């Protein structure tokens, strides 16, 4: 599979920890919202080309099964409707096991259009032939329910990573709580911000698909990440 994949793609160039996308990501013209997302997992800012992509990056950043990710990783050439065409995935995710997952981000209305749906199916078939998982994420999947608002609340607390000692000391006041909730943790830690920091730093876990409240049940995180722990 590795040889087949390498033969079908044009790799991106790298300089140190910088990533040069397979095609230009952030262009200065046009009315589409573009920018850069400060990714702690990737150790750099990741470029995005739409608000939907920016929101998808939040899901990648908080999914325990995602170790790192990069935008526009490489270009492939494939056959579609009797023509050779070029395609560049939006994102390549490296998962906890070391395997990769390719992502295309699309508005659902566009993804379900007959021509687009047929094209995306062909892209998926091509990567399947190469043994590479490929998924389409839509705005409906990314923005459904309370998950995205919760992640936006927690995101600022990713900016100050805790050391190993700090991580152990941070959860120590909570170890003897029989029924841990946001309210109980806030009372023990002194502030809601301290609770959000432990959630953002993956020291506490809860069902982030439900609205956060004082009664939200919390669990002290003690499991290693797995590929299945994804928010999409």
Which segments are poorly predicted (pLDDT under 50) over 5 or more consecutive residues?
10-16
Distance between the termini: 26 Å
Largest sheet: 4 strands, mixed
Q: Please identify the structural class as seen in this structure.
A: alpha+beta
Number of strands: 13
Number of H/I helices? 9
CATH architecture annotation of the largest domain: 3-Layer(aba) Sandwich
State which percent range the strand residues make up: 15-25%
Model description:
The structure is a single chain. The protein has 232 residues and is α+β, with helices and mostly antiparallel strands. It has 2 domains: 2-143, Trna Endonuclease, Chain: A, domain 1; 147-220, no CATH class. 34% of the residues lie in helices and 24% in strands. It is built from 9 helices and 13 strands. The chain has helices at 2-8, 51-62, 108-111, 114-130, 139-143, 147-154, 164-171, 182-189, 192-200; strands at residues 9-11, 14-15, 18-19, 35-39, 44-48, 66-71, 74-80, 83-87, 91-95, 100-106, 134-138, 204-205, 219-220. The strands form 5 sheets. Strands 6-9-10-11 form a 4-stranded mixed β-sheet, with helices on both faces. Strands 1-7-8 form a 3-stranded antiparallel β-sheet. Strand 9 (91-95) and strand 10 (100-106) form a beta hairpin. Helix 8 (182-189) crosses helix 9 (192-200). It is elongated and about 65 Å long. Mean pLDDT is 90; it is low at 10-16.
